[in-house]
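Regression check, S-adenosylmethionine case 232:
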Amino acid sequence: MTFAATVLTLFPGMFPGPLGVSLAGKALAEGRWSLAVRDIRDAATGRHRSVDDTPAGGGPGMVLRADVLAAAIDAASPADDPRPRWLMSPRGVPFTQAAARELAAGPGVVIIAGRFEGVDERVIAARNLREVSIGDYVLSGGEIAAMAVLDATVRLLPGVMGNAESAESESFAEDGLEYPHYTRPQIFEGVGIPEVLTSGDHAKVAAWRRAEAERLTAARRPDLLRRGPAKP
Ligand code: SAM
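Current build output:
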């Protein structure tokens, strides 16, 4: 089963963008996942084919119209589509590595990239959209958020990462941060590599890495130690 991603956006030209290179791009070319990009504007009707309108009740900015977005979703994702529908939104539940793992184990995802002040609230319930945030900051549109979600997810698909072990040891794999890495040269600007890493003692190396990962997590992200397995 190929992981099928569909992205609804007002800026289809932004895709595949970074998803077309490196790991994700190679996997896309190999058919390990598919990417369909739909222009929300194609669903607009009327003489001006406008997709947005002023917010009810007044206030700044514009809002993506419910009727246009619903029609765009219906055209891209039928009612019996088994894929979850995610609306990128700063007020959504946080996107996590656990969420990426869960998504990668499923049939794919339909992602709606918002613009303007956001989307008409009614379409969220009407089309069963899950609001997902990639962090506590405001982007100008959901496209970069969609790319972040897809990049994190696609690299977890079978056969995408060269070394399966790297997914198991990297940051957040066990709700902690990853240990530090070193490589050649042996001495860099007068600083050597921790001796244990060149000792050849695998048990000692593993213990050192575990301790370093715990130290870094406690110092930088104590919240990860406190919380249970994260889910969006
Ligand atoms: N008025 C909105 C608010 O205050 O929550 C911000 C809208 S933002 C300018 C436009 C679009 O960018 C959003 O609809 C969403 O799709 C996307 N976006 C912005 N920040 C995001 C984030 N942290 N995570 C996911 N999507 C984001």
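Comparison notes: Strands lie at 3-9, 33-39, 52-53, 63-64, 85-94, 108-112, 130-133, 187-188, 191-192. The pocket of S-adenosylmethionine is lined by residues 88-91, 113-115, 117-118, 133-135, 137-142, 145 (CB under 6 Å). No diff flagged against the previous build.
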